[in-house]
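Ops channel
N.P.: pipeline sanity check, posting one input/output pair.
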């Protein structure tokens, strides 16, 4: 077997962007949210995670993003186990990732421009003039230049999402994690946000993991879909494979049916 990341006879075998090996997460020593999850996401791939509320989608994303360490198992980012390497190496790897949190996690006391500038100031070590130019470019890229000097609670929900996306992209991440990027948005704004996410992903050939329960948007965005349910991660495949899934939980969920295994009392 060829070790990932090693070259053999001139061929370079790249590690997957993200790899989870037997990952489990137990809260407070008793609530098992995820059990023995295995997943590989290749560089440049777009994976969409779906699943009923409260089953562990956000937890999964936080484990990938290095925010929550798993109770057991390994999280490899570009081949490196982020919970075993030195903190300097870990910071280096985590900087390659950007995240949009479910509730945006914007700083309320900072303007839109300052929200985007914040991670740049912390990490990039570039001067204020350069930061200001980049901030303008990001505001332009997500089409909210007019929100520059407004605070998060002075802009609409859709604009807050765009701002969250801009901040997640501020460090030009190779891997981008979006938690419910269209939550609470109208269907047209949702569609535009997903198109924006796809355009930005394509420009950078970044790896993307996004959570959504809006199946139309999931199909619009995904190369592959996976569902979190009953502590498992079911890889359902591309749009056609997902629609034809024989798993009764997937079948019920993607059609939003009231009757089925997901709504039966235990
Ligand atoms: N820090 C935490 N401490 C204890 N329990 C937690 C913590 N974070 C999440 N949980 C629990 O883990 C489970 C999964 O939560 P998670 O937020 O991942 O759900 P979700 O699938 O993202 O749901 P939704 O679709 O509503 O966003 C829930 O039971 C939640 O209460
Ligand atoms: Mg969630």
């Amino acid at each position: 077997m060829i070790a990932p990341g090693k070259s053999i006879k001139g061929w370079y075998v790249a590690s997957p962007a993200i790899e989870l090996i037997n990952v489990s997460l137990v809260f407070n020593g008793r609530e098992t949210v995820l059990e023995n999850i295995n997943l590989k996401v290749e560089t440049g791939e777009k994976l969409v995670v779906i699943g009923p509320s409260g089953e562990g989608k956000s937890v999964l994303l936080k484990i990938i993003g290095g925010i929550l360490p798993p109770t057991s198992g390994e999280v490899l980012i570009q081949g490196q186990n982020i919970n075993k390497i030195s903190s300097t190496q870990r910071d280096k790897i985590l900087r390659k990732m950007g995240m949009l949190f479910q509730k945006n996690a914007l700083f309320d006391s900072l303007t839109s421009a300052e929200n985007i500038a914040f991670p740049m100031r912390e990490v990039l070590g570039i001067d204020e003039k350069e930061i200001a130019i980049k901030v303008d470019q990001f505001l332009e890229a997500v089409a909210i230049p007019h929100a520059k000097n407004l605070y998060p609670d002075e802009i609409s929900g859709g604009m807050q999402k765009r701002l969250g996306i801009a901040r997640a992209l501020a460090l030009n991440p190779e891997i981008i994690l979006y938690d419910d990027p269209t939550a609470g948005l109208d269907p047209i704004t949702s569609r535009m946000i997903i198109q924006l996410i796809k355009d930005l992903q394509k420009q950078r050939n970044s790896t993307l993991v996004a959570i959504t329960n809006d199946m139309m948007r999931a199909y619009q965005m995904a190369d592959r879909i996976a569902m979190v349910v009953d502590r498992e991660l079911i890889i359902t495949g591309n749009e056609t494979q997902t629609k034809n899934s024989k798993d009764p939980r997937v079948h019920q969920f993607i059609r939003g049916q009231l009757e089925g295994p997901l709504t039966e009392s235990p």
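N.P.: looks fine end to end. Residues 27, 33, 51, 53-59, 102 surround adenosine-5'-triphosphate (ligand 1) (CB under 6 Å).
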